[in-house]
């Protein structure tokens, strides 16, 4: 919002002119900037009087003017301005003058006629206006030959305010003046009392059917108005400072003037009838409203319109074009209307070109319904002063609406002290609230009953009033009182820290993390659950998102399919997320559990002349998973046992056990599902319950043994039903002090073996922390291992 500083001082004491009011308003929550009109935009431009005006013989658009610039000094100027008339006082740039952008004026021939200067428009002076071809018209009492800077507010300042979205009151100068008055402890000027005010007594002759979206209407007819009058220079200057386009007729400029000053939208239309019969209604779809003879607009459905007794739309609230009917300029009787539109309706208005942005903003934030009558009186005063006329009594119609209910809030004085941490004088609080328009009705037991003013739609709670007090007092004037508290160090969140380490490990192994929806396609999920019982949503977005997920596999497979269709040849993905299942112990309860899942597919590395081409397989995924377990410290307690899971290959899937407790699964995707998910290659997946992995085992730090190590291999035949992990654990239990490590180095089967047998070779690494192991000690340990394996697994040693 922009306005003249002098205009603001018409409402408040000009003694504060030297105070930085922009700084005050910014501190109070209204971001304000001030800019000063530059005097050097034009030089030596003077007042001239048009004494003669004739048409140019060689051009229909040009006129030959004789302009008096000082006593007995007349010059000839060629101009194409439309408002050049004899007797007009205009802005003249003579030879040697400088206009906007340092353009110097010189005499020149135009169509063989000498022009000794130029008549200046606002644009040519570097000032705001929207009529390029219209020269500046000065007051009739302007002295010929004077510098025109005297007649403009060039020494004035323009204030620009960024109005908060919840503040309706500061969209007008009246609200800003109220703020500045409170900030400087000044008395705010009371609104002028107009002698014209007289409400109509007999309502029988007036029928106004208001609407729920427009619950209050205030209007008046002004008769015998001279609509040909020019807009006064002082009004043009104020509108120019606010960057408001000057309209062609005086009435439009008057309602713009009132809108800026009072933030009250006014609608004016021609009115010939003596009967007032107005009806508010919703427009029909594609209904046409005729603005001019050759100009009309098509209305959307449910747009509030006002029609007369002939069912003709006479204007649309919030419209900027409804008053521009050509017949309007030929009428002497006008209907002045003030309409309250509800903010809810205004927010739903579509962004049509006929809607006035300024008016719409006022309606959206909330209009002061108690100021409507005053606005009508104020417009009437301006119309009578400039255009003359006779006013009829004011008529008003209002229906019940929640917007007209005054908000009452109880303010506890002790709560102010509790919230702010300091005490503010009661007299100061009352001064602030009364200055802002609040009414303090009662003071009892340190509790006030506050009535919120009708222009403050943003105040609804006690905290809002306390915020207003702080805003006016200023945060800088509130004493800082340090909060006393016992400082303590928060314990590290081991869960989040550990989960982050696991994610980083996968990142290092070229995995990408994905995030998928918790709602998935139940048909795809049924491939991976035993009971086929899904948790369905009552109102799903679509069938593809109608079930709560019980596995992360669906999201991973869809992501892999998406990337494979975009020619990705090597894919490694992982995801951490919640899965859901019905809690059987509690009725109507859903149990959620955090899982980490991963999938790989495609080639191991990009093609390279020095790297062997290899596809990713089950053991690549198992290796990555074992790296994760090594990070958690559980690598020695993890085991993999063959087990068939839904959706996984029957011969390439395993259950993951931690200390004989199932924590997850790993395997190859079933070939059937490869086609179902539109995959182009085999996929290997794992899924692990996160809760069983934390907290991590604490690593113990041991000194590195300085004594030599030794290695012995044992080759044997063993039944295929036994797993290598069981063999390794059994050997490690023989002597934890001397056997440092047991590794499987070879496993295979052959037809020459006994049926159901396989060959295994393990390596035993021996080392003691305190001494060198002798050969006979090592052999005894090897024999003990062989004996134990024979006893438990019935192994058969192989011949060398």
Could you explain how this protein is built, in words?
- This protein is of the alpha+beta class.
- It folds into 6 domains: 2-37 and 157-183, Phenylalanyl-tRNA Synthetase, Chain B, domain 1, CATH 3.30.56.10; 39-151, Beta Barrel (OB fold (Dihydrolipoamide Acetyltransferase, E2P)); 206-403, 3-Layer(bba) Sandwich (Phenylalanyl-tRNA Synthetase, Chain B, domain 3); 406-477, Phenylalanyl-tRNA Synthetase, Chain B, domain 1; 494-693, Bira Bifunctional Protein, Domain 2 (BirA Bifunctional Protein, domain 2); 710-797, 2-Layer Sandwich (Alpha-Beta Plaits), CATH 3.30.70.380.
- 23% of the residues lie in helices and 29% in strands.
- The chain is built from 18 helices and 39 strands.
- It has a 7-stranded mixed beta sheet, sandwiched between helices. Strands 3, 4, 5, 6, 7 and 10 form a 6-stranded antiparallel beta sheet that branches.
- The longest helix is centred in the last third of the chain and has 19 residues, at 775-793.
- The chain is elongated, with a radius of gyration of 44 Å.
- The termini are far apart.
- The model is unreliable at 200-204 and 321-327 (pLDDT under 50).
């Amino acid at each position: 919002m922009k306005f003249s500083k002098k205009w603001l001082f018409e409402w408040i004491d000009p003694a504060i002119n030297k105070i930085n009011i922009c700084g005050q308003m910014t501190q109070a929550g209204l971001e304000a900037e001030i800019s000063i009109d530059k005097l050097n935009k034009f030089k030596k431009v003077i007042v001239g009087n048009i004494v003669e005006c004739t048409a140019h013989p060689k051009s229909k658009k040009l006129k030959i003017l004789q302009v008096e610039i000082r006593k007995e000094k007349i010059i000839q100027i060629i101009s194409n301005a439309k408002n050049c008339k004899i007797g007009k006082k205009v802005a003249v740039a003579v030879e040697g003058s400088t206009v906007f952008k340092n353009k110097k004026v010189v005499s020149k021939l135009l169509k063989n006629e000498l022009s000794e200067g130029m008549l200046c428009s606002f644009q040519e002076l570097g000032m705001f206006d929207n009529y390029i071809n219209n020269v500046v018209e000065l007051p009739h009492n302007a002295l010929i030959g004077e510098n025109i800077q005297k007649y403009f507010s060039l020494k004035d300042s323009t204030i620009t305010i960024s109005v908060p979205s919840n503040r309706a009151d500061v969209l007008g100068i009246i609200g800003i003046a109220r703020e500045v008055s409170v900030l400087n402890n000044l008395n705010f000027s009371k609104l002028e009392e107009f002698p014209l005010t007289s409400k109509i007594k007999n309502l029988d002759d007036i029928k106004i059917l208001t609407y729920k979206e427009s619950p209050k209407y205030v209007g008046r007819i002004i008769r015998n108005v001279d609509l040909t009058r020019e807009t006064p220079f002082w009004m043009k200057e104020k509108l120019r400072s606010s960057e408001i386009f000057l309209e062609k007729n005086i009435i439009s400029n008057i309602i713009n003037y009132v809108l800026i000053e009072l933030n009250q939208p006014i609608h004016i239309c021609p009115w010939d009838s003596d009967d007032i019969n107005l009806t508010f209604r919703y427009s029909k779809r594609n209904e046409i409203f005729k603005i001019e003879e050759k100009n009309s607009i098509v209305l959307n459905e449910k747009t509030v319109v006002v029609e007369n007794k002939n069912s003709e739309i006479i204007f649309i609230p919030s419209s900027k074009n409804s008053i521009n009917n050509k017949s309007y300029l030929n009428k002497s009787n006008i209907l002045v209307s003030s309409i309250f539109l509800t903010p809810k309706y205004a927010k739903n208005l579509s962004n049509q070109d006929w809607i006035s942005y300024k008016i719409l903003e006022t309606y959206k934030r909330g209009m002061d319904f108690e100021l409507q009558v005053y606005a009508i009186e104020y417009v009437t005063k301006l119309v009578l002063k400039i255009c003359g006329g006779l006013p009829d009594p004011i008529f008003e119609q209002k229906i019940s609406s929640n917007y007209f209910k005054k908000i009452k809030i109880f303010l506890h004085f002790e709560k102010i002290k509790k919230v702010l941490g300091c005490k503010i004088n009661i007299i100061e609080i009352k001064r602030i609230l009364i200055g802002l328009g609040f009414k303090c009705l009662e003071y009892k037991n340190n509790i006030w009953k506050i009535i919120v003013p009708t222009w403050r739609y943003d105040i609804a709670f006690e905290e809002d009033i306390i915020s207003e007090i702080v805003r006016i007092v200023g945060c800088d004037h509130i004493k800082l009182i340090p909060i006393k508290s016992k400082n303590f160090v928060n314990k590290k969140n081991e869960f989040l820290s550990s989960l982050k380490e696991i994610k980083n490990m996968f990142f290092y192994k070229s995995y990408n993390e994905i995030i998928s929806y918790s709602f998935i396609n139940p048909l795809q999920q049924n491939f991976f659950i035993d009971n086929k019982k899904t948790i369905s949503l009552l109102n799903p977005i679509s069938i593809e998102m109608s079930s709560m997920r019980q596995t992360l596999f669906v999201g991973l497979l869809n992501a892999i399919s998406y990337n494979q269709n975009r020619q990705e040849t090597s894919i490694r993905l992982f995801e951490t997320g919640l899965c859901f299942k019905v809690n059987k112990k509690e009725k109507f309860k859903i149990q959620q559990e955090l899982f980490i899942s991963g999938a790989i597919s495609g080639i191991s590395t990009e093609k390279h002349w020095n790297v062997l081409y290899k596809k990713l397989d089950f053991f690549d995924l198992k290796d990555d998973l074992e790296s994760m377990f090594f990070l958690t410290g559980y690598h020695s307690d993890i085991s993999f046992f063959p087990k068939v899971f839904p959706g996984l290959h029957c011969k390439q899937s395993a259950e993951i056990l931690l200390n004989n407790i199932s924590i997850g699964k790993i395997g190859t995707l079933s070939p059937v599902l490869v086609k179902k998910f539109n995959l182009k290659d085999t996929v290997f997946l794992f899924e692990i319950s996160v809760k069983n992995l934390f907290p991590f085992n604490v690593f113990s730090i041991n000194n590195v043994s300085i004594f030599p190590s030794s290695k012995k291999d044992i080759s044997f035949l063993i039944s295929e039903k036994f797993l290598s992990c069981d063999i390794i654990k059994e050997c490690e239990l023989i002597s934890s002090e001397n056997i440092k490590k047991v590794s499987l180095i070879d496993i295979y089967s052959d037809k020459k073996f006994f049926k159901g047998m396989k060959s295994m070779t393990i390596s035993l690494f021996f080392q003691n922390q305190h001494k060198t192991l002798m050969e006979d000690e090592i052999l005894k340990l090897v024999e003990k291992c062989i004996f134990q394996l024979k006893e438990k697994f019935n192994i058969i040693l192989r011949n060398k």
